[in-house]
Amino acid sequence: MNSKSFWGWSSTEALREGGESGGFVTSFLESIVGKYDNILAVRKTGTVFEGAVMSIDSKEDAIKTQGALHAVCMELSHYIKKGERTAIVLKPCDARAVIENMKRNHVERENVLLIGLNCGGTLPPVDTMRFIDNYFELAPEDIVKEEIAKGKIIFKTTSGKEFWKTIDEIEEEGFGRRENCRYCDVKIPSMCDIACGNWGTPAGKNITFVEVFTENGNNALEQAVREGFINVGEPSEKMIAVRSKINGIMKKMAGGWNKRIIGRLRNMPNEERLAYIKNVLSPCIACYACRKACPVCKCGDDCKCMQMDPDDSLPISIFHSIRLLHLTESCIGCGNCSDVCPVDIPLAHLHQLFARNYEKKTGYKPGMSIEDIPPLSRGDLPEGY
Amino acid sequence: MSFEPKILAFLCNWCSYGAADMAGTSRLQYPSNIRIIRFMCSGRIDPNFVIEAFLRGADGVMITGCHIGDCHYIDGNYKTVHRYEFLKEYLDTLGIGSERLTLEWCSAAEGMKFSQKVTEFTERIRKLGPSPIKGDEQ
Amino acid sequence: MNKTAAVVGAGISGMQAALSLAERGVKVYLIEKTSSIGGIMARLDKTMPTLDCSICILSPFMLAVDRNPMIDILTLTDIIGAEKSDIGYKLTLRKRPRYVDMDKCTGCRDCMSKCPKKITLEHEEPFGTVKAIHFDFDQAIPAVPYIDAENCLMLIKGTCGNCAKFCDKDAIDFEQKEEIVPLEVSSVILATGARPYIPLDRMEYGYGRYKNVITAMELERLLSASGPTEGNVVRASDGKEPKNIAFINCVGSRDLKTGRGYCSKVCCMYGIKEALLVKDHDPGANVTIFYIDIRASGKGYEEFFQNAKDSIRFVRGRPGEILEHEGNDLLIRYENTETQEVIEECFDMVVLNTALVPCEETQQLSEMFDISVNNYGFFMPSKDISCPIDTKQDNVFVVGACQGPNDITDCVSQSIGAVSKTFSMKGDIKQKEKRSLPGASGKDPRIGVFVCHCGKNIGKYVDVKDVVEYAKKLPDVVYAEDSLFTCSDQGQKSIKDTIKKEKLNRVVVAACSPKTHENTFQEALIEAGLNPYMLEMANIRNQCSWVHSKQYDLATQKTKDLVRMSVAKARLLEPLYQREVDVVQHVAVIGGGFTGMASALEMAKNGFRVSLIERESKLGGKASVTNKQKDGTIPEELAEMMANHLEESNNISVFLSSEVENVEGFVGDFILDVSTPNGIEKIECGTVIIATGFDSADVKSSGYTTSESVITDEKFSSMVNCGMLDGKNYVFILCVGARNEQNPYCSKFCCISSLNHVRCLLEDKPDANVTVLYRDIRAYGYHEDTYREVSEKGANFIRYSPEMMPHIDIDKKVVEVYDTTSSKTRTIEFDYCVLERGAIPSKGTTKLRKLFKMSVVSSGFFAEAHLKLAPLDTALDGVFIAGSCQYPKGISEAITQAVSAAGRASIAMGGGTYSAIPITASIDENKCIACKLCMDMCPYKALQMSENGIHMEVITVSCKGCGTCAAFCPSNAITISGFTYKQEKEKLKAIFEGSME
Fold first, then answer.
1. B17 contacts on C by Cβ (under 8 Å)
2. Which residues pair with C816 in a beta bridge?
C-alpha cells in the first residue's frame, strides 16, 4: 500500500500529558495488549541512562514504557522469537536488523508488528553522563528528560530547567551521538508497519506524527482508534512538509558525517586504507564479542569466519576479513560491534565502509525491505555478461 | 631477484579445467607462476577462498568457468558472476585492489585462450608488484 | 540369454544409444568406421540455437562412453556381413589396423611431432595439416592416434619409421593387419548418420574451382578453436579475413536436379548459427544469407532467427550463379524475390549451406539386413507415423540422420527410443552388478606418492627423482616412487602392491589429468581394497611439464608445489560410497494423447506398472481432429487401437477425467494426489512421464473471428473426416496466433498439418481451388515432398507479410492479401477460409509446472535438462517430458519422444535402485541456521527445509554435487564430499607453505 500519514495522540488525558509527544505509542501499545504473544519495548529502570527490555502483558506495563530514551542503546531484534507473534517498538537500525533476519528466515514477516520510532541518533550513556557533568555540572539523577530537537540536545532537570547545546557543538567536542548514529541516513523507519515521531507536529500540542506503511499497521491503527485508545487527525500539508524538511536536514547532517568518517577512509589511497584497516584491527584480542553483539549474524560457533588455524599469522585475521566480507551485504550500521569491543576497535565504520561501497556499486541497501534480494542471491545474469 | 608473482586459479571441472588440459596437450607455454585448484563448478568458489588466498600470500587470483550458457550445472556460473562483482568491490574497499582478481570463461576447446589469459594476468600482476596486504612480511 | 546389441556408427546417435543401453546393463558393441567416436558433432564449433560449445558438451559424453565397462568401442571397423541367427544377428566385422597399440599408447603425441608426412583432414583443406599419424580431432576417443596407411612413408615405401623410433612406449606396430571378426548380437541399432554433401556437381557455384567458395562444414572447422586455423576465419586465396560473406541455403537440397527433393532440415539453422559466429569473430563483417524459406521450426529456433535479423542480412532468393571477379572475389547474381530485382553483388567469401546426404554404406547395410531405403537413399522406417524407428526386421532399428536429416535433439530422441525398444524385446537384461566399494583403512593417514615420468613427457622437463625425494619428506607420506608410466599395467600393479605392502590408505598420483585418468587409478585402488575416493591426482603434465617445458627448474619447483598441494588434500580424504535409492516399480504418465498412450504402452512392455492420467473423459487427445496421414495412417484409428491395447494390458490403470492435484517425494518415490471421479487417488510411483501436449492459440491474437465459413483447423479436419466439405474455393491462412507478438515462437507442426489438410482436400476434391497464405513454408525434411505434391496438384501459395495480415471479409467471403512475391494485393473468394493456428502450452502444462516446480522456457513449454543432449530429462531426476509439452511437434516425432521418455524412465527404474553420484552436499544439522540462503541457489531444487523447520536437508538423490550451496552457506554447515571446505583450504594453504620462488 501507499503510506498514509496521521497525527495521533492518546485518548487518555494523563497519558497525553505524560507520554512523549502525546502518548501515542503508549496508548497504541495498550490497544494491542493481549493480541500478541509478545509485546516488547524499552522501559526506564532508573535514570534516563538506564533501561531494560520489557515484555508488555497489561495496560499497566504499557504505561511503564513512557518516555524517550536516547541514551539507552539497546538492540532489540535479538528478542524476537521465531514462531511467536510479536509486536515490537524499534528504532530504524533495529528494524533494519529485523528485516535482515526476515530475509534469513529467522523472523516471519506475518508474525510481527513493527512499531518504528523516528531516530535522530542515540547517545552513549557513559560519555553523555561525563558530558553533563563537565559542561552543566549535572548528575544523572538530576535529569528527568533528554531530547534531540531543532539541532540541539536538550536536558530537562528535576527543577524544570532546560540545559542544551547544539549537536554540532557537542559533537565537535567529542561528545554527543554515537559515531554510527551521526552518519546513519535512515531516520524514519519506513520498513516498519508504522513509524512514529514528533517531526511535523505543531509545537506544544502533544501530538505524534504517524506514518503507516502496511495493511497490517493500518488495521492495528484503525482498531486502536475504534476501541478508543487513540485519536487521530489529518496532518496539515504544511506540517507534512515540515517533517520531511527535518528528515532532510538530519540526512544532510548524516551526509556530512558520512563524508568525514566513511569518506575519509574511502578517499585514502588503497595502500593507506589497507594499512589503516590492518592497524586498526591489530589490537583485536579475539574475544568475538562483536560477532555475538551483531544483530544480523546468527551463525553457530563453527561458522566460516571462525575457520582460523591456531598457528596462523596473517596480515588480517580470517575472522575479521570474513566478517567484513559477509557483512558487506548485510551490515545495517547499528554500531553494536564498536560498542562492545573491549579494545575500542571502531568496527562499525569499517563494516559500513564496505557495505556503503557495495551499496554505491549495486544500489542494494540492507534492511530496507524484504523484497530487496541481495545481489549475491539473485539468480539472474547481470548486465555485461 | 625480480618479483615473481604468486597466482592462484580456481577452475571448474568441466570447461576451464578442460581448457587447461588442452593448453597442455597443445604444449602452449605460459608462465609457471600459477597454481590451480579444481572445483566441480565455478559456483562452488566460496569468496572466502579468494580472500584467504590473498591473506596467505597470493598476488593475484584467477577464477575461470564455463561460458555463460554452457554451465554443466545449468547456471552455476551466473552465481559466479555476482560473486566476482562482489569480490571486486570488497578487494577495492580493503585496498588490495580489484585488478588482482580476474574472471575468465574458457571452454574445453579453448586451450589457447586459457594460456593467453594466464599469460596476460601474470604480466598484469607482475606489473602491479607484490600484493600490498603482504606488506613488510615479504 | 542376455541381450547384447550392436550399435553401428558412433556419432551422437550411436553414442547416445550405446550409453543408454549400457546404463541399463545391456552389453554394447559400438562399431565405428573412423578412428574415433564423436561423429559430426565433435567437429562442430557450436550447436544451435543455444550456441553451446559443441565439444564441451560432447567431450564428457565421449569419456562416459569410453569408461563404461558395458561398452566395447570398435573403431576403424566395418560390418561386411550379417545373417539372422537364433538370438538375432551374426555379424562379420572387418577391423582395419590402427598401427598403434591401444594398450601401450599414452596419447603423448610425441610421434606426431616427429612424423614428416603432412596430410589434410576432410573439411579442413587447404588449411589444416596434421601428420600421417594423427588424431582426427584433438579430443578423439580412444585417445590413441592412428596411422593413415595411404600416407605413411613406412607403410608405403618402408622408409622413415620415425614415430616408432621416438615412441617411449613402443606402441607403434607396423605389423598390424586387417582382421575379420565374427560377432553375434541380439539386436542392431543402425546409427550410421549422414554426411555433408560436397557440392561439386553444382557447377554454377564453382565449388572446387573458386578458392573462396567453401562449404558450411569447412567454415565450421575454421570457426572451431581446435580447428585448423584455431578459430580464425580466413580466405583460402590470400589468408585474409573476409569482410563481406554470403551464405547460400539449400545447396543440394530441395533440388530435384541433383535428385534430392527433400529439405535437409538443419541447414537454415546451422547457416544462421555460423553467420552469427562469423559476426561474433569479426563484428565489422557484413554477412548475408540467401534463402528460399527460413525453416526455423524447432525449439528456440524462431527466436534465434529473429534475433539474428539484427546483425545478419537475409535476402530471399536463390542465387543463379557465382563468378570469380577481380581476382578471387566472388560475384553473385540473384533475383531478390521480395523486390523482383535482379542484382549482382560482390563478396569476399561464399559459404554453401549444403545438404546432408546418406553415407556410402547405407545401401550396403540395407541389403545386408534386408531393410528398406527411401528414394533419397536414407533408411526408411516401416511406418512414418506409428513406428518411426522400427524396420521390417524386429530387432533392427534405424535412428538419427541415417533415416534422413535430423538435428541433434531428434537424433537423441530416436536413439533412446530404439534403446527402449531393445529393452522390451525378448532376452534378459543382466542385472546391474551392485558393487560395494571398499572403505577406509586405518585411522592415521599413510600416503603413497606415485610420480609419473610419462615417458619423456614429464621426465624430460622436470627432475622427477628430486620430486620423489621431496615428496618423501611431506607430512604423512610413507612412500614415494617414480615410474616411467604410472598408468601402465606395471605402474598400476606397483600402486596396488604398495598399498598392501606399506598399508597405504591414501594415494597421490602425480601424472596427468584426472579428467582422463582418475578412473584408471580409482580402479587400481578398488582392486587393492581401498576406497576409490582416497585418490588425489596432481596434474603435473598438462599443467606443468608440457606448458613450462623450457623452464626446467621452475617446472620442477612447481611440480613439488602441486605434489605438496595434493598431499595436503589427501591427508583429509574420506571414503565415499555410491548412493542407492529404492525405486517404486510404477510409473505415472500424465496426459492421454498419442504421446502419453505411447509412453504408457512402452513402459508396460518394459515390465513396469503404469498409471495413465488424463484430464478429459476420453483418451486420444487431438486424434479425432487430425486427418489421414501421408503414410496412410488414420490418426483416429491409431488412437483407438492404442487405447484398446491400454485397456487390454494388465499392467496399466487408466484414470480418465482425472488431474494431478499435489506432488510429493522425489525420484524413486513420488506420491501424486490425483483427483478422479471417485475421489482422490494416491499414486505412488518411481518416475513420472509428462505428456500434456498443447492447446491451440486463440485466433483473436491475429485479429480474426470464426464463423460458418471461417473455420479453425480443427473444425476443418473434423469436416474432412466426416466428409462434410461442400465448397469449391478454399483459403488457408497459416501462422494464425503464431510467430506474432503474443506467441513469438514457431509451432513447427502447423505448416505440416496444413499441407496435410490441403493434400487430403485435393484427394477428396481434385477440382477445388486452394490458396495457401503463408509466411515461410516450413516443410522440413521429407515434408518438402508433400509441399511439392500439393503445388503440382494446383494449390496456389501466396506469401504474405506479418505487417499486413490477410484481411477476411466474412460477409463477402473474400480474403484480401498483399502478395509479397508479386507486390500486388489480391482478392480471393472462398467458401471456406481455414485458420491454421499455432500451439500454446496446455492447461495441464501450466498446472503441473507449479506442482513439480519445473522450469519452462519463454514460450511456456517445459524446459528440458539440455536441449541437445537430454531433451527428455528435466532438472528434476525421475521426471521426464515427451511430445508437445516439450515443444509443439507432429505425431511421429511425439511418438518417438514418447518411446524415448519411456526408455529414460526404464533406465532410471531398471534394477529397482537408482544410483546417484557420490559427490554430493550434506548438511550438518547442528551448524545449519535454517537461513535458506542455499535453497534458492540450488539449480536442482535438492535442498528443502526439515519438517521441524529448524534446519535444511539435502535431497541427496537430486543433488549433483556442484557445490553452489556450500559457497553460499555462511555458517559452514554444508559439506561437499570430495571437495570439502577443509580439504580445499588445506590445499590452498599448501600453495603458500612451500617456497614458491
1. 513, 515
2. C807, C827
